[in-house]
Amino acid sequence: MSDPGVRRIGIAGLGTVGGGLLQLFQRAEPLGGGRLKVVAVSARNRSRKREVDISGYEWFDDPVALAASPDVDIFVELIGGSDGPAKRAVEVALSRGADVVTANKALLAEHGAELAALAEKHGARIGFEAAVAGGIPIIKALRDGLAGGNRVSAVSGILNGTCNYLLTEMETSGRSFEEVLADAQRLGYAEADPTMDVGGFDAGHKIALLSAIAFAAAPDFSSVDVEGVDQVTLLDIRMAGKLGYRIKLIAKAERIDETVRAHVHPVLLALDHPLAVVGGALNAVVVDAEPVGRLSFVGRGAGAGPTASAVAADLLDIIDGAARAPFGKPVGSLKNYTSAARAEEGRFYVRFLVKDKPGVIAAIADQLAKAGVSIESFLQDPAQGGSDVPIVLTTQRCPRSALDAAVRQIGALDVIAAPPRVMPIEETRSANRAWS
Hints:
twelve-stranded mixed β-sheet; Dihydrodipicolinate Reductase, domain 2; six-stranded parallel β-sheet; 27% strand; 18 strands; Alpha-Beta Plaits; 13 helices; disordered C terminus; 3 domains; 33% helix; alpha/beta; Rossmann fold
């Protein structure tokens, strides 16, 4: 007979995070003071060589069967993916009243409201601290620490360590995106298929969750405007540096009247911006709220240690009796905000690659002037070799729609050698203002 004072755990997924979690349980001092016990595990390959011993746990080939086991009180889902076995297993666990802890940001960003409703119906809890920013306790900070008397106006940050590593390495080493990505894959910092990371989708899932908690809304990944770093070139990084900026992939959600704008974009940050100094694979989150003001969180966003510690924190909350709604309020009270369009106005970096012919600059300036877009600074770099010349300019504050229309017209000129590149600029002094 099982000890009624001990919560029995089943872990599905024994990769980096699952292995790290088991290591926490196998330390001399047991996690939770003996009130938590891993009894069963599941993974794709039972015979795979692992750094952690799994011989003392019941094995399940099927994670859904593990989730359905009456011998498991808390189901830990570390499989990944927004659908498939991860979703089915979580649904099965919640349907029988078992608590769930997960690191699966895609699952919750796309199906969070329905899973929260299922948990409410059956008296189960969902913990997902590990789904966003690894070891940074940002979910708890937003949902619990700031929930009292604060009104959050914006939450933003560097939420993907792979992208931050790539951009940092390109800047410091002078190597191209392709070269740095190949090294990152070789070192295990990037997946063999890096699309989720470099395409901005991973950060998009995370900002959808932070937005839901910050604004007491149902998570809605489909409303997040996503752009990755795969089109950021070494030339962009170098030219931005000459202008006094650093390029970072920034995820941001902000409240605008009765709408919420959530987006992921490469952004030019002034060098004294609090997020500009966050390098390597670190994550960072900045929260703007009243009356507390601005809060910044920086730490490791991935890896066995940080992410497993976040899973462990959720497990300890569960055995301590914490009964919080996943997104801060019961599902019936969550708002369905209208998604705001892109920011109407801002300052922008625009890069053109042009053929070295007379009149090119005049043609670009003419189209911008017709659209009512004023140039703030201008930089030409002929030291590239070849016949094509990069031209970079920054704009004064202007409507994004006007700039986009002008850039489309310029891109159609026969002197343009490659599609133009537009990125928003954020200054430290405008950190509380919206950017596109």
